Amino acid sequence: MNRRDRALTALDHREPDMVPIWELGVDPPHVEAITGKQWITSSKGTTLDKRGIERHNADLMAECYNKVGFVMIRAAPSDPDSWKPQRFPDGTFTDEWGRIRMYDPRTKSTIPFRTLIKTPEDFEAMPFPDVHAPGRLHGIKYTIKQVKGEMAVAAEVRAPFATAWEMFGVTGFCQILHEKPQFIRKVIEKMTDFNIELIKMVVDAGADMIVSNGDIAEKNGPMVSPRYFSEIFLPNMKRERNTANRKGVKFVKHTDGDLNPIMEGLANTVDGLHSLDPSANMDIAHIKKKYGKRLVLMGNVSVDKLCRGTKEEIVKDTRECIRMAAPGGGYFLNSSNTWYADALLENCMAMVETGRKYGKYPIKL
């Protein structure tokens, strides 16, 4: 059974030969350490254009995932060929969704920093991204070609809830949701329509799974009232899942935070959950017992311990994750988010090594 087969078997709620191991993301400093090659962050000092840089970094990520032995790799949509961001004197720049991004030298990646979109009027005036714009699938198609069927490919779509709160800012989003819920419903529906088309495109290109990225909760619970999830957000998420399922692939939601107040709704909405944060009261043993026949589970070795714990703690926690969640299949071993730049690489590799040692089916822990 090759790594892609192992992933697809687990996604089908069956037991493969061994527990599949993967990470939603690995920060560039770890990619550099594993491959011995340099991640490129800008065109300065290189003759590569933006597509060349994108391909170079995709090659490094695929090499990293192959060296570690992950069963699946994430691939994200690309900026269109024609996209030219607005740049500011402080080094920040805009993306297609009106978010202003900044480069983080610690992680060698960009993060949302602030936004141009403050009001409903700003949103209405914003040129809405064209999902069919030339170049949109460049990175996804390239990654699918590079992995050559050895790994499954999880195509990323950004969750409309996350895109919306990033666009308006958390405070602005919550205020507009409270005062004008029908406007937010309209925003979410429009973004969901975008994602539905994107899902069709990426599956036709060869993606094996859809992962909906972007947080909907934090340590103390869902970011907004569960009522809004029932009325607005989960019904639109189900539209995305239904599209993925009709195309023959699973739809998995990534989010941090305590999901317990909305777990029943999520279990009726998505095919799987990543990454089940143990620091936010997400008990993988309880979730496996209650929802394991309905949800593929991905997690949940603590990223806090990967950053600050000992190798012995990682081995112990990894064994517990396998013992509690692997029997019966439908389980992927991974961290409770991604391999952050702050994580100790020896701890990350200890998780992988432990997974290989104790993750052979039938599980005997």
List the helices and strands and how they pair.
Blueprint: H1 3-11, H2 28-35, H3 50-68, E1 72-75, E2 93-94, E3 99-104, E4 109-115, H4 120-125, H5 138-147, E5 152-158, H6 160-168, H7 170-179, H8 181-205, E6 209-213, E7 217-218, E8 221-222, H9 226-246, E9 250-254, H10 263-267, E10 272-274, H11 284-291, E11 296-301, H12 303-308, H13 311-325, E12 331-335, H14 345-358
Parallel strand pairs: 1-5, 5-6, 6-9, 9-10, 10-11, 11-12
Antiparallel strand pairs: 2-3, 3-4, 7-8
Helix pairs in contact: 2-3, 3-5, 6-7, 6-8, 7-8, 8-9, 13-14
Distance between the termini: 22 Å
- Number of H- or I-type helical stretches: 14
| Oligomeric state of the chains present here | single chain
CATH architecture: Alpha-Beta Barrel
How many β-strands, per DSSP? 12
Question: Regions with pLDDT < 50 over 5+ consecutive residues?
Answer: none
CATH topology: TIM Barrel
Instruction: Compute the CA-based radius of gyration.
Output: 20 Å
Please characterize this protein's 3D structure.
With 365 residues, the chain is of the alpha/beta class. It has one domain (3-26, 73-358): TIM Barrel (Alpha-Beta Barrel). Helix content is 45%, strand content 15%. The chain contains 14 helices and 12 strands. The strands form 3 sheets. A 7-stranded parallel sheet has the order 1-5-6-9-10-11-12. The two termini are 22 Å apart. The model has no long low-confidence stretch (mean pLDDT 97).
